[in-house]
Amino acid sequence: MLRALAAPAQARRGRKSIFIIRDNAMPRLPILLATLIGLSLPASASAEPPQAPQRQWLAGDHHVHSVYSARYAVDPDHPDRAPTPIIGGDSSHSILMNAQKARQFGLDWMVATDHGGPHHSALNHARAWPDVVAARRAVPDLTLFYGMEFDVPGGEHASLIMPYGPAERDQLRDIESRFAERDAFPADPARDRKPRMIEALRYMNGLAEKPVLIGNHPSRTATGRGQWGLHSPTEYRLWHETAPNVAIGMEGAPGHQAARPKAYLDAAHGARGLYGGYPTMGGFDQMVATLGGAWDALLGQGLHWTITASSDSHGHWTERGADFWPGEYAKTWVFAARDPADILDGLRQGRVFVATGDLIDRLDVTVAPVADPTRIAAIGDTLAVKKGTDIQVTIRFRPASAPNGGGDTPVVNHVDLIVGAATGATDEHNPTTHLVRRFTARDWRQDGDRIVIQHRMAAPEGAAYLRVRGASTGEGEPSPDISGENPWRDLWFYANPVYIATDADCAPE
């Protein structure tokens, strides 16, 4: 099916209003006509130009640890010396093993993200980088990014993803050595303060090849619902304003989903996601799972803020760990060509949906004016319409057709269409966000291996966003997760928004 999609005009990300082709390339018209009427064309006219790689949904994981997420041993006789890194101290998995497991569980791309300690930048540069290069050679059908779990000054962690290129190794060492909270020895108190993070973002934003940074487990340190810990929506907005092409989003579904209560663990380390303050909700961070919550607040402020999902893989649950392998439980799907730069572009532009437990593996959400159905916007795009315009929302997804890692073939129970206004208000919640309609099997139709939902509605009065989520259970709003529950019985997917821009002064179409 041919879908011409209007890409949004977003000056802050350097995007222009253009039409792009998704799914299938348009046949060259002269050749098509000649075929139909039996004419012959000159050889020069019949030669097809090289085709650019087509975009497709690619599954990935941006938060994966290896043996280079080291622990550190202090020499009691020489406390003035930098601690010695213990390779394999926090994860026993090699980068190669992670890459092989990623492919086994269906991933197309992955990021190696080891976290730091004193002089970890040198360890990463000397030891992890050669292993990344070797794994790229050994697993060539996986796009393997080099990065790290950045120790955020004054905060927790973020996945830092370096663009492919000749500078990636040295630039990561430069960023980590200059700004990562724990890299300095002796410890630098300035690195434990939030202004240092803004300095780091300014520095990254000034690089010719900018990295991508995604906030990890955003409210893991929260003390209650809506009571933020080390990171708040206001702080994430500041990150994005400082470096809009670097700080692009946050984990919606954190890793450590296989955590279980054990006698030798505290409550936090036995909770799903290791969330000890306020639990995850359906496996998702409360910032995302709460309708009208922090994610909706950021979207309502006008940010195009992308959510992702990851494994945070350290130790597999079969090894007494709390984790699944990369791609085994959670996947971040990016609509991109099989090209490292386009995958990062997909993350930046929000061409992303996330799913747990392989509940679905394809999702297209499109919006078009009823009067002009060829003017289509998809996930991550902006549709400009006049006030009073009727719009058609089409949701197409491919449900599971085989057992997942939990041994079940999950079934989608319902799909929600959610709309919120983008008023620009800087609150930490968005009271305009609401459920437009909940769809169940009686509301959708089968189209081959896809399920199709269509809904006609009036365009919002002003700037807005439209997003979709779905669940395997009959639970309407996700409730707080209980320690020890089976994560395979509680599966969700979330799409990043389609954005709506309306002109209230124009006449209806």
Walkthrough of the structure:
The chain has two domains: 56-356, Metal-dependent hydrolases (TIM Barrel), CATH 3.20.20; 364-503, Immunoglobulin-like, CATH 2.60.40.10. The protein is 19% helix and 27% strand. The protein has ten helices and 23 strands. The chain has helices at residues 29-37, 43-46, 95-104, 120-138, 168-179, 194-205, 233-242, 286-289, 294-300, 340-349; strands spanning 3-6, 19-22, 56-64, 71-73, 84-86, 109-114, 143-151, 157-161, 212-215, 247-253, 306-309, 330-336, 352-356, 360-369, 382-386, 390-399, 414-421, 434-439, 445-447, 450-458, 464-471, 492-495, 498-503. Helix 4 (120-138) packs antiparallel against helix 5. This is Phosphoesterase.
**Annotated CATH topology of the largest domain:** TIM Barrel
* Major sheet: 15 strands, mixed
Radius of gyration: 23 Å
Which stretches are low in confidence, meaning pLDDT under 50 for 5 or more residues running?
Answer: 1-46
Percent of residues in helices: 10-25%
Identify the CATH architecture of the largest domain. Alpha-Beta Barrel
Strand content: 25-35%
The CATH class of the largest domain is Alpha Beta
Number of self-contained structural domains: 2
The name of the CATH superfamily of the largest domain reads: Metal-dependent hydrolases
The tally of beta strands, per DSSP, is: 23
| Tertiary shape | globular
Count of alpha and pi helical runs: 10
Distance between the termini: 26 Å
The residue-averaged pLDDT reads: 90
Helix-and-strand structural type: alpha+beta
